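Please fill in the sequence for the structure shown.

STRUCTURE ENCODING:
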């Protein structure tokens, strides 16, 4: 079955070009010209992927992104600020392509995200990681503790997954960074400590327990 891609962009010329290109590649296409219109379309039909511009009338792309977390989203924007890119990737965007872009490269990035999404859907149980009282769902970026769901950022989820897969075993900082480098390239040695702190605070807020221990000179471990 042909995949459907939704273009959310108020630039008619870019939207028309993308629609024509995608249809030639065999994709179905949905269109929206604002964040509000996109939500109305999504109430009736869910695409396989979103191409999302940031500079939209009314509800902009940054405001829309948290509302479409269940759909793989590639940001298309003329904004090239690195901090802005990192922020959006941390908040759930799968990829970020700066305008003007090469159509061939964009098609390749779309293909990669659709393939990743298919692989994720083959076996939903692969998205569940359990350790102690915690169950981590890497698909929806949520850890459940004592029946209480706790929402994580994509980076926090990637870090916690590694620690939960190795309960009681110290994992070095560089090892963590290497293993999450593909999915969360925004994480650095400097920011890793802050991400760990955020995870600990979120979990402690549920039952007061500290599930992650800092090992001096090595890294961190999940308390089994």
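FILLED IN BY: designer on duty
SEQUENCE:
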């Amino acid at each position: 079955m042909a995949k459907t891609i939704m273009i959310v962009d108020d630039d008619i010329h870019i939207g028309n070009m993308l629609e024509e290109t995608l249809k030639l590649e065999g994709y179905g296409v949905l269109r929206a010209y604002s964040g509000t219109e996109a939500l109305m379309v999504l109430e009736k039909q869910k695409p396989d992927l979103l191409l999302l511009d940031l500079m939209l009338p009314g509800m902009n792309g940054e405001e829309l992104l948290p509302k479409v977390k269940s759909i793989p989203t590639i940001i298309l924007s003329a904004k090239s600020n690195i901090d802005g890119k990192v922020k959006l990737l941390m908040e759930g965007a799968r990829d970020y392509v700066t305008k003007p872009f090469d159509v061939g490269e964009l098609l390749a990035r779309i293909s990669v995200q659709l393939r990743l999404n298919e692989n994720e859907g083959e076996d939903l149980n692969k998205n569940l990681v359990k350790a102690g009282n915690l169950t981590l769902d890497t698909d929806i970026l949520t850890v459940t503790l004592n029946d209480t769901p706790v929402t994580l950022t994509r980076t926090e989820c990637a870090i916690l997954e590694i620690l939960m897969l190795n309960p009681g075993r110290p994992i070095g900082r560089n090892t963590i960074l290497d293993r999450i480098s593909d999915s969360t390239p925004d994480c650095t040695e400097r920011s890793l400590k802050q991400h760990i702190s955020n995870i600990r605070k979120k979990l402690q807020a549920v039952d007061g327990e500290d599930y992650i221990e800092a090992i001096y000179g090595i890294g961190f471990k999940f308390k089994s």
